[in-house]
Specification:
Length: 269
């Protein structure tokens, strides 16, 4: 396997409540320091968090940046080989160098549907701290990242050809599941059933847990213990009900909900 999914990032105005949510419910731990905060300065108390496999960046949102999921990332055995494949097979794909202070990525690119992803490799000058470690195993971890595409087969072929993800499953609804051997990439077809279904790009994150009912109790408990970090209800109003139903149609997840910022999540066991 040429590359493995090792990163996901979201923008928020509320770092502390997001950090508390993922730390409390999913036992994620901080693996880097000195992340840039809403003042634009490096904050020694902020950093990426991890489930032992995936590093998650909860980024301070600034003007011109949308809230929510922004990009995900791969750790490649050979970034140069990935870039050569992009140039050979997808010359229209744009590639940019990452910001020097970012602790994971060296390069940013996008797939045919426009979903942006980072490329990293151990040995790159800016890769640091927890991203240099081997990680750990824990009962709750990100086991799938879902994206939307108008043409899932085209996007799936891209990730297979460029990053060597393997097809695990496809279905009659047009969705395709790829895997790096541990984490899945679920490519869901766009649809016109609701406004959100028209959009291509990142859709939701799914966690594997030891027991769905136990995790649901923890979600209820955090709403009492740390109410500012409580998950938000999705099924509010007619669009909310439709979004809830759409998320529940995920072929992997068993319980759908959102984090304190409204980022869509599901869990399975």
């Amino acid at each position: 396997m040429l590359a493995k999914i090792r990163h996901v990032a979201a923008y928020t105005d509320y770092y502390d409540r997001m950090f508390k949510f993922y730390q409390t419910v999913f036992r994620m731990k901080q693996i880097t320091t000195g992340m840039v905060d809403e003042t634009g300065k490096s904050n020694p108390n902020r950093g990426h968090i991890s489930d032992g496999v995936i590093g998650m960046a909860i980024l301070a949102r600034r003007p011109g940046i949308q809230q929510g999921l922004d990009h995900f990332g791969f750790e490649a055995e050979d970034v140069k080989e990935v870039l050569d494949r992009l140039k050979r097979n997808y010359p229209e794909i744009l590639v940019a160098n990452a910001l020097t202070y970012v602790p994971f990525a060296g390069v940013r690119a996008h797939d045919p549907a426009g979903t942006q992803f980072d490329l990293s490799q151990k040995g790159m000058s800016n890769v640091r701290e927890g991203y240099l470690e081997e990680g750990w195993e824990q009962p709750r971890w990100i086991n799938h990242i879902s994206i939307r595409a108008a043409k899932p087969d085209v996007v799936a072929e891209f990730y297979q050809k460029v990053l060597e993800l393997k097809e695990e499953e496809s279905s009659d609804d047009g969705s395709i599941i790829l895997t790096d051997g541990k984490v899945r990439l679920l490519i869901r077809r766009c649809h016109s059933g609701l406004y959100r279904g028209l959009r291509q790009g990142l859709d939701h994150i799914g966690f594997k847990v030891e027991n769905v009912e136990k995790a649901r109790k923890d979600l209820d408990e955090i709403a009492t213990t740390f109410p500012e970090s409580a998950p938000r209800k999705i099924d509010v109003g007619s669009q909310g009900v439709a979004i809830q139903k759409d998320l529940e149609a995920c072929r992997i997840g068993k319980h759908a909900f959102s984090d304190p910022d409204g980022l869509l999540l599901d869990i399975s066991d």
